[in-house]
Design goal:
The complex is a heterodimer. Chain A is an all-beta fold. Chain A has no helices and eleven strands. Classes of the chains: A mainly beta, B mainly beta.
Chain lengths: 107, 118
């Protein structure tokens, strides 16, 4: 199984801040990396797929980059609705695996 | 619009069984791979199983292999998860999700809670 490790596990930020979350894979997953946002009590929502492609309907302040084993999710100018938990997921090989999540809280 | 609605969750004793269902609408169900993904209370996401569009290819996480069975009925636009020999560690919200291609999940249901406890 491909282990995915996110950092940090949590962070505090203010409205308008820019933040970056990292996700590392134990082995190369090329660009088979997806990012999800989850709010309490809700299902996850796909934000970014194939490392850097923005899912339809997702605001452009979200962006993804990386390849191989190192990936980042960047949110420019945090909005109130962006405070949530974010997960990366590899789709290079089954079993599909997720990072442990990064909780973004209001400072 | 795409909609996925899970049902069948509940409280079950260890060793018991439960069958989850996911009703799909708003898209051509038979064109898509589907997955079950779970989330234990306060924990992260844990992929459980997928089934190909025709049902001919199935994959399970090691943690459920031999105990869970995924299936689908394309005529009824429905996905199922038969869960046997349930354990306390199977307690979670179970989501069905559509695979958009390359293993990414573009639509998720609202989830159904399965609690395994005596």
């Amino acid at each position: 199984d491909i282990q995915m490790t996110q950092s940090p596990s949590s962070l505090s930020a203010s409205i308008g801040d820019g933040i970056t979350i990292t996700c590392r894979a134990r082995q190369s997953i090329i660009s088979y990396l997806n990012w999800y946002q989850q709010k309490p009590g809700k299902a996850p929502k796909l934000l970014i797929y194939a490392a850097s492609s923005l899912q339809s309907g997702v605001p452009s302040r979200f962006s993804g980059s990386g390849s191989g084993t190192y990936f980042t999710l960047t949110i420019n100018s945090l909005q109130p609705e962006d405070f949530a938990t974010y997960y990366c997921q590899q789709s290079y090989s089954t079993p599909w695996t997720f990072g442990q999540g990064t909780k973004v809280e209001i400072e | 619009q795409v909609q996925l609605v899970e049902s069948g969750g509940g409280l079950v004793k260890p060793g018991g069984s439960l069958r989850l269902a996911c009703a799909a609408s708003g898209f051509t169900f038979s064109d898509y791979y589907m997955s079950w993904i779970r989330q234990a209370p306060g924990k992260g996401l844990d992929w459980v199983s997928y089934i190909s569009s025709s049902g001919g290819t199935i994959y399970y996480a090691d943690s459920v292999k031999g105990r869970f069975t995924i299936s689908r009925d394309n005529a009824k636009n429905s996905l199922y998860l038969q869960m046997n020999s349930l354990r306390a560690e199977d307690t979670a919200v179970y989501y069905c999700a559509r695979e958009a291609g390359s293993g990414r999940f573009d639509y998720w249901g609202q989830g159904t809670l399965v609690t395994v406890s005596s």
